[in-house]
Write a structure and sequence with these properties.
CATH topology of chain B: Pyruvate Kinase, Chain: A, domain 1
Order of helices and strands of chain A: EEEEEEEEEEHH
Number of domains of chain A: 2
Radius of gyration of chain B: 28 Å
CATH class of the largest domain in chain A: Mainly Beta
Number of helices of chain A: 2
Order of helices and strands of chain B: HHHEHEHEHEEEH
CATH architecture of chain B: 3-Layer(aba) Sandwich
Oligomer: heterodimer
Structural class of chain B: alpha/beta
Number of strands of chain B: 6
Number of domains of chain B: 1
Helix content of chain B: 55-70%
Radius of gyration of chain A: 15 Å
CATH topology of the largest domain in chain A: ATP Synthase, domain 1
CATH superfamily of the largest domain in chain A: F0F1 ATP synthase delta/epsilon subunit, N-terminal
Number of strands of chain A: 10
Strand content of chain B: 5-15%
Distance between the termini of chain A: 36 Å
CATH superfamily of chain B: ATP synthase, F1 complex, gamma subunit
Distance between the termini of chain B: 33 Å
Shape of chain A: globular
């Protein structure tokens, strides 16, 4: 597999996922979705709430992330995130409680534009999953 | 000399204490394994975070306009100290080691005429510090309800610290916690988190040329608050492993001491019993002789 690279997803509690045969990853970067293939230029960016798609061979893994930062260098991609859930394992109850949480956060009037945008984005994504 | 009954009572009481300390030791040992595991699992996140920030800050040329969390507020007047301790006692020198370290730091700050503010995490630290530093303590946080250390608790503390920093309530923030080395040794640590200390900034670690999207400072602004929470989370993990380790060795000692005490008391009990028997015999014999 010459077209593959390494992927590491870490959350504060543990190493969430570590693969060495990833052919493509699509991440919801702050300024729009970004697809990363092998030999991508070194990049640092951060994520908005959305779906990370991991392509390995014929398989596609979809993961919901709430925020995070990605770093790609020398064909290894690191994703640091505080909350990440495999879409297959996500439960309806959790979804609705997460939506409520985001709606609650939106009520705060001192929210700056960026945070408001992120919260709206989160509700959007969660509703689509629901 | 205590009577036989008294001695017997003391022996049973020491024995039951020994049972408790033994049980606590077992529990601590089980918890320690879990805590140690999660401390080790948490390391990649904070290490990676640290690396990225290091890379970012190397790429920032305009140091003057760097985010305040990185560069500091330019002053050095008000120090905030976050003292992280446990919520429970009976863990040997664990809590007092942290507070001792913190107190010597407090003294240094107060002696140099700077203002001191204290946030305590964990009720034991609050108990130990409130007598001497009551007027400096601005907040006392305790996570008694949460069973395990989790990131969202750490995030809460982190957000609170950042909020205070943005309001200009302090200039420098230092956290105090115990670093877990092994079961017997825990090292009290002080770590400055605001402004971020750039360690070994001149080592020739070849600077990677990264593309940034969005701009460097925007990423840093987003990342630095997260780093604070991460550092606090790391400290909490280290702390909980240290707490269990310290409790385990303290309880081990207590069990051993209780064993020694039981031995000593048993000898004393046997001796006084023998003395009583001998006394009775002497009485009988001298009674018989006088006939």
């Amino acid at each position: 597999m010459s077209d593959s690279f390494n992927l590491e997803i870490v959350n504060p509690e543990k190493l969430f996922l570590s693969l060495d045969n990833v052919s493509e990853v699509v991440v919801p970067a702050f300024e729009g979705d970004m697809g990363i293939l092998k030999d991508h230029i070194s990049i640092i960016s951060f994520l908005k709430p959305g779906i990370v798609k991991v392509f390995t061979g014929n398989e596609v893994k979809e993961l919901y992330v709430e925020d995070g930062i990605i770093e790609f260098s020398e064909n290894s991609l690191s994703i640091l995130t505080s909350r990440i859930i495999d879409i297959k394992e996500i439960k309806k109850d959790d979804l609705s409680s997460m939506i409520n949480e985001a709606n609650e956060a939106l009520k705060d009037e001192n929210l700056d534009d960026q945070k408001r945008f992120l919260a709206n984005q989160k509700i959007d994504v969660l509703n689509r999953l629901n | 000399m205590a009577s036989l009954d008294d001695l017997k009572k003391r022996i049973t009481s020491v024995k039951s204490t020994q049972k408790i300390t033994k049980a606590m030791k077992m529990v601590a040992a089980a918890k320690l394994r879990k805590a140690q595991e999660s401390a080790e699992k948490g390391r990649p996140y904070s290490d990676k975070m640290h690396n990225i920030i290091l890379n970012l800050s190397k790429n920032i040329n305009d140091k003057e306009n760097a985010p305040k969390l990185l560069a500091g507020s330019g002053k050095d007047n008000v120090h905030l100290c976050v003292v992280m301790t446990s919520d429970r006692g009976l863990c040997g020198g664990f809590n007092s080691n942290i507070t001792k370290k913190a107190k010597s730091y407090f003294k240094k700050i107060l002696d140099s005429g700077k203002e001191l503010k204290i946030v305590t995490v964990g009720s034991k630290g609050f108990d130990q510090l409130k007598r001497a530093y009551k007027e400096h303590i601005i907040e006392n946080i305790s996570f008694k309800e949460s069973k395990n250390v989790n990131y969202f608790d750490a995030d809460k503390v982190g957000k609170m610290i950042i909020e205070k920093f943005e309001k200009g309530e302090f200039d420098v923030c230092t956290i105090f916690f115990n670093k877990f080395k092994n079961v017997i040794t825990q090292i009290p640590q002080e770590q400055q988190i605001i402004p971020l200390k750039s360690e070994k900034s001149d080592d020739k670690n070849d600077v990677m040329n990264y593309e940034f999207e969005p701009e460097e400072d925007e990423i840093l602004n987003n990342l630095l608050p997260k780093n604070i929470s991460t550092q606090i989370f790391k400290a909490m993990l280290e702390n909980s492993a240290s707490e269990q380790g310290s409790r385990m060795s303290a309880m081990d000692n207590a069990t051993r001491n209780a064993g020694e005490m039981v031995e000593k008391l048993t000898i004393e009990y046997n001796r006084s019993r023998q003395a009583a028997i001998t006394k009775e015999l002497i009485e009988i014999i001298s009674g018989a002789e006088s006939l």
